[in-house]
Each structure stands twice: as structure tokens, then as C-alpha cells.
């Protein structure tokens, strides 16, 4: 190291960069190993209809579970896997598992409705996306009517014209489309009406602010936009009954959050669906 000659700041900068690069490489290697050895599992978070109080579907959320049982949330590996491209393979593992689980639950009469799977920008932009999704549906036997895909504003605003075309192809298959984390990105209203969406998911940040008058106004605005475009609304991250009450008063159709349940393993989800009551605080 000659860095010291150049001053402490340089040394610090170098060390930080090195630490980051090492961590990135470690995560990348772990992901590779996880894909090979099947460490990626799907957890499911229930979505509740406000009008019936019943389970109307769930969101599939990926978890990395090491052989020692350590459960890793996607925040640590999804961003890196987006960069390395590994998110495509992870996403397909999740889609395949989610479709297979849902097919089983529908066949056994346990579930109806839809399973929602998050689609990364990398996946969305694959030239053979439609073919890949069709193959997974064929392979698992799930009807496209029981599948919903969640995409973010960032994914579709990159190349809106192309996105509109891909979205139409997905809709033509019978798949439903939701805009995830709505309001946090920078999608323009003029495009929003051209996107063939079914649902807007109101980001947790707005739900957190539902108690303030500005927060309420924002949510009201989002719900009004959704109504005008004939889209349904889902509130993300509902944690308290006060938030539930406020969201319901404002006319939000579907509620999702820790108030009802954290994301559950497939076994726990089956139990939740059978009992239609939260098995709370079991998984994260
Ligand atoms: P997201 O799609 O917006 O998912 C919602 C996140 O909010 C999940 O975090 C969920 O566990 C969390 N959440 C739900 N209700 C509550 C609540 O009441 N309170 C709080 N504090 N959090 C709540 P998770 O599972 O850690 O996932 C984080 C993000 O990682 C997801 O955000 C999504 O962008 C991404 N992700 C997860 N699974 C996948 C996947 O299979 N593929 C891709 N491409 N991305 C995924
Ligand atoms: Mg999502
Ligand atoms: Mg979301
Ligand atoms: Mg969110």
C-alpha cells in the first residue's frame, strides 16, 4: 500500500471500495451456490379483500435459506443480482415454485384468486420473456388467470413504448399486471393511462403517512387516479388497524401487511388459507 503517501482520505476511500467489492463478490458467489443447491425459497404474504375480509391472493417473496437455516431477505441480494444478471435465474426459480404451489392449492380447493410474482427489470426486458413465462405455465399447469405480475415504474419507464407492447402480450395470455410501489418512481400520468395495468399497489411509504392530512390527500389522489383508469388498488405494508380503517374509508380494495400476516412459508400459507386467520409472527 502506497496509499498513505497520498493521505488518509485516499486510504479510507480505497479500503471502503475494497470492502464493497469483496462483499459483492461474496454475495455473487453465494447466489451462484444457492441457485445450484436450491437455497432460494418462496414465501407468501396474504392479500385481504376489504369488502369480504377474505384472502384474495398472495404475493410471492423470495428468501435465501442457507443449509444452517439462516433466512436472508431479498434486500441484500436482489439489487446485486440485478447488476450481475443472476436475478433472471432467481426470478425463474421463484416463478416456477410459485406457479407450482398455486396450482396445488387451487387443485386441492384451498385457494382461489391469484399469486403475484415480482418481475425484475432484467426479466421484463428479456427478448423471449413471453415464451419463458408460457413454458413455466405449461410445465406447472397453472392457468394464466391465476397469475399476476408486479412490475415497478422504473422497469416500464425505461422504454415505455416497448413496455406497453410487452404488457399487452402478457395481458393477451390472461396474466394480470400490477404496478408495484406506485408513487415512489417517476412514471408520468400520460403513460400511466397507456399501460394495460389491472392494479396499482400503493407504496408502504404512503400507508405509513395515512394518519396525516397530507398523507391522506396523497392516497386519495392515487385512489382517484386508479378509479378513473378502472384499476384496482392494493395498500402495501398495512401494520395497524388505524391504517386499515383509513385505507378502507378511502376506498382501497385490497390490503396487505403485517397486520394480517408476515410473509409465510408454503406450509404456513396453506395453514393460513385453511383457517382464514392470521398465524402471526411466525416467519419474516
Ligand atoms: P415489494 O415487492 O414491494 O414487497 C413488499 C415488501 O414489503 C416485502 O419485503 C414484504 O415482506 C414487506 N412488507 C409487507 N408488509 C409489510 C409491513 O406491514 N411492514 C413492513 N415493514 N414490511 C412489510 P421483502 O420480502 O423483504 O422484499 C423486498 C423487495 O424485494 C420487494 O419489495 C421486491 O422489490 C423485492 N423482491 C422480493 N421477492 C422478489 C422476487 O422474487 N423477484 C424480484 N425481482 N424481486 C423480489
Ligand atoms: Mg411486490
Ligand atoms: Mg411493493
Ligand atoms: Mg414497497
UniProtKB/TrEMBL annotation:
It comes from the Bacteria. Residues 24-277 form the EAL domain. This is EAL domain-containing protein. It comes from Psychrosphaera algicola.
Amino acid at each position: 500500500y502506497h496509499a498513505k503517501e497520498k493521505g488518509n482520505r485516499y486510504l479510507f476511500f480505497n479500503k471502503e471500495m475494497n470492502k464493497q467489492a469483496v462483499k459483492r463478490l461474496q454475495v455473487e458467489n453465494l447466489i451462484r451456490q444457492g441457485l445450484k443447491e436450491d437455497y432460494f425459497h418462496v414465501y407468501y404474504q396474504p392479500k385481504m379483500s376489504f369488502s369480504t375480509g377474505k384472502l384474495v391472493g398472495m404475493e410471492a417473496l423470495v428468501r435465501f435459506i442457507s443449509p444452517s437455516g439462516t433466512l436472508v431477505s431479498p434486500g441484500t441480494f436482489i439489487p446485486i443480482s440485478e447488476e450481475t444478471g443472476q436475478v433472471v435465474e432467481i426470478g425463474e426459480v421463484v416463478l416456477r415454485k410459485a406457479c407450482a404451489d398455486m396450482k396445488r392449492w387451487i387443485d386441492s380447493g384451498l385457494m382461489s384468486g391469484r399469486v403475484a410474482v415480482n418481475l425484475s427489470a432484467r426479466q421484463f426486458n428479456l427478448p423471449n420473456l413471453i415464451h419463458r413465462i408460457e413454458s413455466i405455465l405449461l410445465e406447472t399447469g397453472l392457468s394464466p388467470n391465476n397469475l399476476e405480475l408486479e412490475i415497478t415504474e422504473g422497469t416500464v419507464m425505461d422504454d415505455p413504448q416497448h413496455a406497453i407492447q410487452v404488457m399487452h402480450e402478457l395481458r393477451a395470455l390472461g396474466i394480470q399486471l400490477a404496478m408495484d410501489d406506485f408513487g415512489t418512481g417517476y412514471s408520468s400520468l400520460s403513460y400511466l393511462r397507456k399501460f394495460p395495468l389491472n392494479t396499482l399497489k400503493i407504496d408502504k411509504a404512503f400507508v405509513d403517512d395515512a394518519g396525516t392530512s397530507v398523507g391522506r390527500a396523497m392516497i386519495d389522489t392515487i385512489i382517484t387516479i386508479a378509479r378513473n383508469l378502472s384499476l384496482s388498488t392494493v395498500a402495501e405494508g398495512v401494520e395497524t388497524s388505524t391504517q386499515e380503517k383509513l385505507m378502507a374509508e378511502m376506498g382501497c380494495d385490497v390490503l396487505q401487511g403485517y397486520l394480517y400476516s408476515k410473509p409465510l412459508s408454503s406450509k404456513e400459507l396453506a395453514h393460513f388459507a385453511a383457517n382464514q386467520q392470521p398465524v402471526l409472527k411466525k416467519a419474516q
